[in-house]
Amino acid sequence: MGNFAANEGLSIFVILVWLGINVFLFVHFYMAFLIDRFYYTRVILGHALSWARAPAACLNFNCMLILLPVCRNLLSFLRGSIQCCSRTAARQLDRNLTFHKLVAYMIAFHTAVHIIAHLFNFERFMDSQLMVNSTFLPYVLSQIGNNDNKSFLNPIRSNETNPTIVMFTTIAGLTGVVITLALILIITSSMEVIRRSYFEVFWFTHHLFIVFFIGLVLHGVGRIVRGQTPESLEVHDPKQCESYFETWGKNGTHCPEPDFAGNPPMTWKWVVGPMFLYVCERLVRFYRSQQKVVITKVVMHPSKTLELQMKKKGFKMEVGQYVFLKCPSISHLEWHPFTLTSAPEEDHFSVHVRIVGDWTQALYTACGGDKTTVLDAWTLPKMGVDGPFGTASEDVFQYEVVMLVGAGIGVTPFASVLKSVWYKHVQKNQNVFTKKIYFYWVCRETQAFEWFSDLLQSLEKQMTEKDMSDFLSYNIYLTRWRDTEAAHFRVQYQAEDDPITGLKQKTRYGKPNWDNEFSTIATQHPGSKVGVFLCGPAALAEALGKQCLTHTESGTEFIFNKENF
């Protein structure tokens, strides 16, 4: 329970508060439309009125939240501000995209309820107009306002139309259709398979959020949901006057004809603050994108991995941070996230780009990856850089014992960490709180190890010379290999250096036994807080997350951190 509370306690508390607010708003606004002011509205619509308005309130709340988790500059500022006070609270900001997705699912749910309820409402409004019988109260209510068309209750003003026409000829109906279509496109294009295989589709359709928010703000302008005015309620009590509807407004009656008015639009009050913050966010990004970036070096690594070393005036970073890159010669609109692989102590910043899609392939070509000759510096493409932004890996040096787990190209944030470790020890920095690092790198192919094997060899040599070989423990795993490679490995296994990485530490074959690894670390560091940092796939994250919760040997706490961007 201690490990569970340390890892998930605050996250669960935040989710429960968020769900609680949604429940409260739903119940509160459901009951708010059961008052006398909406008595006659319910005569026509029944409880479908409350079923439409309650999710609308929840939509306002969640649309207020949806933009905040993607304000990267705001989150980086908050992370740096609260990190000194609460490491646990800072870790919650690393789950911003998870919360963003949860809020999106909640918006989709309440949108569905809201639409279904209003479909019933439009049908009942239409049925009330079609009754053509003054002995039915819904019909009488629908005829109010026919003369001056000011104080009406039924927004469908004629029996010669239908709900479909009304849907596309009223502000509420038209904006409702537009924002629903935008929401469907945004959510469906965000599916993992589309986002990874067709990132451009995800990127461009996600910007339909602009259409969504404009439609959302305008949706209530038509005031289609109407209720009795306060002045009318003073002289016309609906519970007393309902039975006398045939004589309303006639001489000698005590029940004048009721007056109705629509609710003023409220959505803008909920979303104006987050929209302003997001506009400021985009202005900051635009300003950064216009700053000059110089590519100082391009390195072509095996397995079609491109390393870009760059410089930018005023650029400052911490270990494990990431940036967004734009290449205007490829696309003026597309920004892609990449983890920084350089250390803060270096005079440049670098990223490793694995060529897996159209944009990365175009960047590879623009940087001369498909050429055998070296390009002149002035022929290299111009780049836009936004960032850096904080991630979980920033907290590495705040733990006495650290586990770094990288899968394939997911090793990149830990390249920055290991480089920084090397520089700190070269510079004899005595302020390093971390006493032990366990580094795990899991790869499917041997070529991937060449990405920064030079760095690993330098670190290993440096630690040996300084008699600090126990500080950094390498655990490198190869999960796939060809038969020809296996034969070579068997022949070279007894060699002093590993045949794959060139390290003294031998490469292991197959997948790690995480249960044994966690048990061993817990036994060797009793009573410690161990920071577990992962940059890798969801399946590996799930496995490590479970290990962090279940291993409590010797009072050790494993705190799980995962890269999300």
Automatic annotation (TrEMBL):
One of its GO terms (molecular function) is superoxide-generating NAD(P)H oxidase activity. One of its GO terms (cellular component) is NADPH oxidase complex. It comes from the Eukaryota. It is found in: Cell membrane. It catalyses: NADPH + 2 O2 = 2 superoxide + NADP(+) + H(+). Its cofactor is FAD. The chain crosses the membrane at residues 12-35, 102-120, 165-189, 201-222. Gene3D superfamilies: Nucleotide-binding domain of ferredoxin-NADP reductase (FNR) module, Translation factors. It is a multi-pass membrane protein. One of its GO terms (biological process) is monoatomic ion transmembrane transport. The keyword Cell division does not apply. Catalytic subunit of the phagocyte NADPH oxidase complex that mediates the transfer of electrons from cytosolic NADPH to O2 to produce the superoxide anion (O2(-)). In the activated complex, electrons are first transferred from NADPH to flavin adenine dinucleotide (FAD) and subsequently transferred via two heme molecules to molecular oxygen, producing superoxide through an outer-sphere reaction. This is NADPH oxidase 2. It comes from Triplophysa tibetana.
